[in-house]
Amino acid sequence: MAIYTFPTQAELMLIAQDKTPRLTADRPAFQLLPIRETRASLIRWDQRDNFTGLQGARGLNGDPTRVKRLGAKTYQMEPGVYGEFERIDEYELTTRRAYGTWNQPIAVDDLVMEAQDHLLGRRLDRIEYIIWTLLVYGTFSVATPYGPVVHTDAYTTQTFTAGVTWATQVTATPLANFRAIQLLGRGRSANFGGQATAYMNRTTFNQMIANNNQQDLAGRRTAGLATVLSPNDLNMVLANEDLPRIVIYDEGYLDESGTFQLFIPNNKVVVIGKRPQGQTIGEYLMTFNANNPSGAPGPYMKVINRGEETVPISIEVHDGHSGGPALYFPGSIVVMSV
User: For the chain, N or C: smaller number of CB within 10 Å?
Assistant: First the structure.
């Protein structure tokens, strides 16, 4: 019987821990809602109520008035349960065995690592898809391949619709739109001015930079009275007017049909306000997973040799996780339709 060698579950997890930071470094979704493991079976968090009112007058010899204790609201959601595997089949395993050998170890490490790269990429794409869908639409839904929705949630985020679409370049007013966004931070402990960040895809950016309205963006000039032509020029103008910094994010994923799907759709701008102490607006929480040793939280990865159990022989590489997004400060988000 052939002996196949491949990474253990512990080795796979260590390798993934090294790969994940590099794969997420340039993806802003993972900075907006960083991944964190929580030792719980449910996603649950408490949110303190806002400070309200003004200190009451007492007067000389007067009794102070009692102030009601600050309350809190508890939020809870069921985590989504995700998982899939890739099979290394009999043909690949057969052609790996050298002719004239018997009971010699046959390394399939490269096939296992290739499968892990594929599955890890799909996992990160799924999480990023959930985060951007939630930020853009205030809700997300994930169905199984067979149809039923098994993971969904919604939050109340702020929205703003431009009076004139940015594609109407002669009369569009992107700067005025951003100035209107500034005002939406009132009472929400969020700064939508120069400390905020506005995420958009390149199509939306191209419409903005092509603005011809002399009463708005087209009338602004950079150093030496030069016109605004580049992202750096635009951000310089926005900074001078205390408006959000633009970040172009044009990434997405290939769906099962091979069609490229953008994470941020055309004509949508996701503005993330700055919290007073720089807090992140939320997290993507990974919960307990019974497929991990001791049911530890976080993703699971396994390699299963089916050679002693089934015919034809196969080796399965598994990857999955249980978790979901916790949005602590939905009021720090404004989605512009432009």
Answer: N
Q: In whole angstroms, what is the distance from residue 27 CA to residue 253 CA? A: 13
What is the torsion angle, in degrees rounded to the nearest 10, for the CA atoms of residue 16, residue 17, residue 18 and residue 22?
90
Contact assessment for residue 131 and residue 111, using Cβ atoms and an 8 Å cutoff: no
Mean confidence (pLDDT) of the chain: 89
Q: Contact at 8 Å (CB) between 264 and 132?
A: yes
DSSP secondary-structure letter at 60?
A: T
The β-bridge partners of 37 are 286
Through-space distance between the first and last CA atoms of the chain, rounded to whole angstroms: 64
For the segment 155-195, what is each residue's pLDDT rounded down to a tens digit? 988 999 999 999 999 999 999 999 999 999 998 889 999 99
CATH tag for 3-17+28-38+74-337 (out of 3.30.1300, 1.25.40, 3.90.1690, 1.10.287): 3.90.1690
Q: Work out the number of other CB atoms within 10 angstroms of the CB of residue 173.
A: 19
Which tens digit of pLDDT belongs to each residue from 230-275? 888 889 889 999 999 999 999 999 998 999 999 999 999 999 999 9
| Mean of pLDDT values over 48-63 | 85
Note whether 317 and 88 are within 8 A (CB): yes
* 219 CB neighbour count, 10 Å cutoff: 13
